[in-house]
Write a sequence for this structure.
């Protein structure tokens, strides 16, 4: 399933592989978590929610249009869902 997804036209965004953008999102969230300040919550929330929405979109494309289930994509969707939920519910006062 991953070979079909990675060779599709949806495998790149702005000329770079979607895996690069995923890595950049996770690295940004990790960096924000390590140097946490309440005022950085909005950036963490935006990255997590955008990552969730984009992962949901790509997973929908892979399952419906490409008819392929990539375990890495499904894992990323699960992680981004959890991160979006955590950043949403851990909003500072």
């Amino acid at each position: 399933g991953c070979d079909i997804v990675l060779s599709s036209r949806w495998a790149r965004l702005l000329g770079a592989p979607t895996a690069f953008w995923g890595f950049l999102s996770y690295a940004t969230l990790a960096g924000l978590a390590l140097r946490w300040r309440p005022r950085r919550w909005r950036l963490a929330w935006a990255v997590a929610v955008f990552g969730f929405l984009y992962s949901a979109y790509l997973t929908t494309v892979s399952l419906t249009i490409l008819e392929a289930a990539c375990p890495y994509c499904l894992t990323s969707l699960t992680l981004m869902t959890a991160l979006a939920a955590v950043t949403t519910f851990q909003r500072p006062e």
The chain has a mean pLDDT of 85. The first strand starts at residue 12 and ends at 13. The first helix runs from residue 2 to 6.
